[in-house]
Automatic annotation (TrEMBL):
<dbReference type="InterPro" id="IPR029058">
    <property type="entry name" value="AB_hydrolase_fold"/>
</dbReference>
<dbReference type="GO" id="GO:0003847">
    <property type="term" value="F:1-alkyl-2-acetylglycerophosphocholine esterase activity"/>
</dbReference>
<keyword id="KW-0442">Lipid degradation</keyword>
<protein>
    <recommendedName>
        <fullName>1-alkyl-2-acetylglycerophosphocholine esterase</fullName>
        <ecNumber>3.1.1.47</ecNumber>
    </recommendedName>
</protein>
<keyword id="KW-0378">Hydrolase</keyword>
<dbReference type="GO" id="GO:0016042">
    <property type="term" value="P:lipid catabolic process"/>
</dbReference>
<feature type="active site" description="Charge relay system">
    <location>
        <position position="313"/>
    </location>
</feature>
<dbReference type="InterPro" id="IPR016715">
    <property type="entry name" value="PAF_acetylhydro_eukaryote"/>
</dbReference>
<dbReference type="Pfam" id="PF03403">
    <property type="entry name" value="PAF-AH_p_II"/>
</dbReference>
<feature type="active site" description="Nucleophile">
    <location>
        <position position="235"/>
    </location>
</feature>
<feature type="active site" description="Charge relay system">
    <location>
        <position position="258"/>
    </location>
</feature>
<keyword id="KW-0443">Lipid metabolism</keyword>
């Protein structure tokens, strides 16, 4: 059954956020990587197949209290909610092994570069990233520095000092398109820089992680298959993934979760050379946005557009696993589809698509029907049908 309900997750506080562990055959490890001492460097969270380790610690879902403040400001527009968020979700953990030992693979793992949405940051897609890692991918979840993250920071060359980059709304008097278009180009360049980072490591370059994690990036050398690289993202990150295909030939395909197509200039649509899988939620997309996706699908017969019925925009983030009352308080109405089922559908459709276009020797083809919009909760190319769930 392509959408049987997975094992349920666990959380550090009963009744708060309980993220599901990956359902695939691999255990999942996770580490943070920061490269360079300026905002032109890179910051990402890496999810990867790992070896089991007794007494493994689990990382915090919200890595630092500053992110609660950033979320309260960016998502809710209410800075005072920061303390409430901190109390409610500040101690929640991600069910992965923090700095766990990397599981070697002589044929190399395929790589996914993941781009977050507006007002999000590198850890808010832990459920989807750890699910993909559990099926044998290395996933690099970026934290963008274009001021679209809830907040982010870099460490300067002066020991012990940090510079924070807060979220920025569209400045008054500026057209939103031009502001967002500049951001999406910066984000796509960051995706390409992330790929260059891994290409460098694979080529034997020594890359110092300035966060000084107890985890050596050189273990990736010989364990990545960089002929099999995809780019993926949610919302603003979805359109970032589409643009990254234009900028970088090494990306073989893109998976765009509920892509916010608005910031991409029209002249680029004919330039998107590779297949894209658009996985939309039922409530977010507009007719204009779908029309833009269809323009891309007319250019590439392998591009697919599917809608997961009974889902809302936030269902493709970890926030879907907040308890109902807390979710509704923050975002209003939630989807009718169980979030575990929504995650299973989304990742399995992505896996089937990645198998097809990265030429993987796995059995993800058993979920191919999801790409054609067959399977109850998934419809092809139909953004406005009502949920029957």
């Amino acid at each position: 059954d392509p959408v049987s309900l997975p094992r349920l997750g666990r959380g550090s506080m009963p009744g708060m956020l309980a993220l599901p562990p990956g359902q695939g055959p691999h255990q999942v490890g996770c580490t943070d990587v920061m490269v360079g001492h300026t905002r032109q460097g890179l910051f990402l969270r890496l999810f990867y197949p790992c070896l089991p380790r007794a007494g493994a610690t689990e990382p915090l879902w919200i890595p630092r209290s500053e992110y609660c403040g950033g979320m309260a400001d960016a998502t809710l527009g209410r800075r005072w909610c920061s303390v409430l968020l901190s109390i409610a979700i500040g101690s929640c953990k991600v069910p992965v092994s923090w700095n766990g030992p990397f599981k070697p693979r002589s044929s190399g793992y395929p790589l996914i570069i993941f781009s977050h949405g507006l007002g999000a940051f590198r850890t808010l897609y832990s459920s989807i990233c750890s699910e993909l890692a559990s099926w044998g991918f290395v996933v690099a979840a970026l934290e963008h520095r274009d001021r679209s993250a809830a907040t982010t920071y870099f460490r300067t060359a002066e020991p012990g000092t940090e510079e924070w980059i807060p979220f920025q709304r569209v400045p008054q008097g500026q057209k939103e398109f031009y502001f967002r278009n500049k951001q999406v180009h910066q984000r796509a360049r960051e995706c390409v820089r992330a790929l260059r980072l891994f290409q460098g490591i694979a080529g034997g370059r020594s890359v110092p992680n300035i966060l000084h994690q107890d985890w050596d990036l050189s273990v990736l050398k010989g364990n990545l298959d960089l002929t099999k690289v995809a780019v993926m993202g949610h919302s603003f990150g979805g359109v970032t993934a589409v643009l990254a295909l234009v900028k970088e030939p090494s990306f073989r395909c893109a998976v765009a979760l509920d892509a916010w197509m608005f910031p991409l200039e029209n002249v680029l649509y004919p330039e998107v050379p590779k297949p894209v899988l658009f996985i939309n939620t039922e409530k977010f997309q507009t007719p204009e946005s779908i029309a833009r996706m269809k323009r891309l699908s007319s250019r590439n017969s392998q591009t697919r557009i599917v809608t997961v019925l009974g889902t809302v925009h936030e269902d493709q983030t970890d926030l879907a696993f907040l308890p109902g009352k807390l979710f509704s308080l923050i975002f209003g109405r939630r989807g009718t589809l169980d979030p575990h089922k929504a995650l299973a559908i989304t990742t399995r459709a992505a896996l089937a698509f990645l198998q097809r276009h990265l030429k993987l020797e796995e059995e993800f083809g058993r979920w191919d029907e999801l790409l054609e919009g067959v399977g109850g909760s998934v419809v092809a190319d139909a953004p406005f049908c009502r949920s029957h769930l």
